[in-house]
Amino acid sequence: xxxxxxxxxxxxxxxxxxxxxxxxxxxxxxxxxxxxxxxxxxxxxxxxxxxxxxxxxxxxxxxxxxxxxxxxxxxxxxxxxxxxxxxxxxxxxxxxxxxxxxxxxxxxxxxxxxxxxxxxxxxxxxxxxxxxxxxxxxxxxxxxxxxxxxxxxxxxxxxxxxxxxxxxxxxxxxxxxxxxxxxxxxxxxxxxxxxxxxxxxxxxxxxxxxxxxxxxxxxxxxxxxxxxxxxxxxxxxxxxxxxxxxxxx
Length: 249
Prior knowledge:
By secondary structure, the protein is an alpha/beta fold. The chain has 11 helices and 11 strands. It has helices at residues 3-11, 17-25, 41-45, 58-72, 82-89, 127-139, 156-159, 162-166, 181-186, 209-216, 231-248; strands at 30-31, 36-37, 51-52, 75-78, 96-98, 103-106, 114-121, 142-147, 170-175, 193-197, 223-225. A 5-stranded parallel sheet has the order 8-7-9-10-11. α1 runs antiparallel to α2 and α6 crosses α11. The chain is globular, with a radius of gyration of 20 Å.
């Protein structure tokens, strides 16, 4: 629970002052031996801890997933496999899994989503990374507009959605190959652009390095770049920007 929620419960006489004091006195992480669960992360940063599922042992994943769900009533994991979904579904029948983005989650119903983030891809092959970004932002409470397959090989497709893109508080540009989409968007909008290079492309794309270098060297202003295929990082940063933009309106 967040600090505000604890204080509200005290005010409404739902929990005692002593129970609230116990919450605030807890150490800011929970020792598990194989992991230290950061149960106070949302209090500090406004975002709860998220599970990076890839390469985790089955038993460790089950225990971490269970504890975070007990803490917040919802839980979010990235880079999950079909196998990990199956073993978690045995314990949580309500768990949701997206095989495109490899996101696994249990999410509270009726969650309010604010502002607007535009998530754009150069091509259809970039959608898996874009969905990781989009679903991350949605889980953290942002409204997301998906604008896919608008790369520079047919730039008229991008212009047809320009009004929507320009109305967003932040734009995520997901592109492989030469990664030119971020530069184009940077020159068309007055909001920050988060560029996400993907490992999509032929040999000389070097598994996304070519797109990464293009984005870092962009002559357009207002572009920040995350790591190759890091949709989660883009969704997180875009949510921080979107929250500030929504507060100012």
